[in-house]
Amino acid sequence: MTGCWLRVRAVIAAAVVVLVGASATRGEDPVLVSVTGPLVGRVGERASFEVELVNRSGKPLQNLRVIDYFDKGFHHEASASPIEQKGTIDLMPGTARRLTLDFLLDEPGRQCHRVEILDQSHVFVGGATHCVEVQPVASAAAPRVATPPAPVAAPATVAAVPPPLAATPPLAVPPPLATTPPLAAATTPAAVTAPIPVPLPRSTAASTIPVPAAAALELDLEGPAETLSDGVVSYVATVKNKGAGAASPTTLEFSWDDHLTPLEASDGYNLVASKVSWNLPALEPGGQLKRQINLRAKAPADAYRDSPATRSCVRAVLGGFGGGAMVADESCVLISSSTPRPRVRTPAEAGLKLSLADLDDPVRPGDSTTLVCTVTNGGTEPTGRLDLLILLPDQARLDSDRTVARVRIDDSRVSFDPIQAIPPGGQRSFEITYRLPSGGTGRASAILSSAELDGTVERSCQTSFLEP
Question: Residue 8, by phi and psi: left (phi above 0), alpha (psi -120 to 50) or beta?
């Protein structure tokens, strides 16, 4: 079994395609599997089949296993049935992958092979079966068939039987008729005494039934690889019919990721939510048509000139083939911001001021002092969220009953709940009360910071506690 990757591009061949027969009971499988190949062949010939996998689940599928089960009339160089493709397959939503299977036809009769797809949990996600009527090799000198006795030739019913096969020259590969019986039994003398099948009219049996010409549609989506924010990007989808027959009407749909906004599209479009679609006419062999959409790219609001580019993609899907089949292609663009990163201000440049003072100094034995910390916005713009931290002296004890604020205590570190934005000219005050049981001099510090500012503001306050 050999396989080849597609450039997120696929070709739907409207030739002989056999879909999985179990879909009626399983519902819609995540992976649509189609097999294209001959319906008839001869012993000793090599038969080639194309297997196409389409991810219609709407989500990425990874580590898919491809396993093929085949009758003994098929011979594969790798091993006997079953065989598994080397490695696994990953499929993005709406994309396809094509593989090629080559077999040697060994035995006459109806020979079938089935392709099954398993996910990384070994769960069936799609499959399809294809059968071939294998005929024996036509011999150079066909055996002569004995002439039936005279009494047998008299009835009128026997007169309608075609001449013995020995008188028929070697046949070319017959047309792919599902009702054509295997020819193995008809080439032996024993076939004369076997039940005679209902013969086709001579005019039909002697003629060649043409196989309808098949269409083969290809989709190619092209667009820019990068752009600046607020730039306009154009994406053009080209649909080509590379087959020998005319293609039926189809539909073409564009969808896009965030940071892209539609501006205009080719005539005849239908816009629904964040998708644009067209109804495409029938396409003659060798014909092609194009549809275009223009979108405006916009980098995220928090992106700056030195930020990594933002990747957004546009997808085109060609559908309407029946059986859920589709062709998809994708093109992505890197959107770079042209906005310079703003210079980070210091607290002094923002106009922030901080004060820290005690209400009692010195403090009598057994008593406490209250620290008052005031934050003032002396700037012209509201502040962002601020964080206030007070460091108390070692051995300090916080008087929670007299502390006018919600705080978090970690040893000697006292953190206040985040301070919301302070308008220009506004201020906020915070109080905590503490004591030193053993007396002495206590030094407390307040630290004001902000994620939007570069640096901190610090103030200290020293208080004397009288010894008992």
Answer: left
Average pLDDT over residues 307-335: 88
- CA-to-CA distance for 339 and 358, rounded, in angstroms? 47
In this predicted model, what pLDDT tens digit does every residue of 134-186 receive, in sequence order?
Answer: 898 865 444 444 444 444 444 443 334 444 444 444 434 444 434 334 433 33
Whose structure tokens read 């980098």?
299
Nearest C-alpha neighbor of 312 from the set 216, 253, 203, 231: 231
Phi-psi region of 38 (alpha: psi -120 to 50; beta: other; left: phi over 0): beta
Backbone angles phi and psi of 94, in degrees to 5: 80, 0
Alpha-carbon span 277 to 271, nearest angstrom:
7
SS3 content of the chain, % helix, strand, coil (to 5): 5, 45, 45
Domains of the chain: 2-135 (2.60.40.10), 150-205 (no CATH), 216-336 (2.60.40.1530), 347-465 (2.60.40.1530)
pLDDT in tens, 407-438: 888 888 889 888 999 999 999 999 888 888 88
The CA R_g of the chain, rounded to the nearest whole Å, is: 41
Q: Are 443 and 461 within 8 A, CB to CB?
A: yes
Neighbours of 297 (CB within 10 A): 22
Mean model confidence pLDDT for the chain: 79
Judging by beta carbons within 10 Å of its beta carbon (0-12, 13-18, 19+), is residue 396 exposed, middle or buried? buried
On whether the CB atoms of residues 84 and 67 are closer than 8 A, the answer is yes
CB 352 within 8 A of CB 457: yes
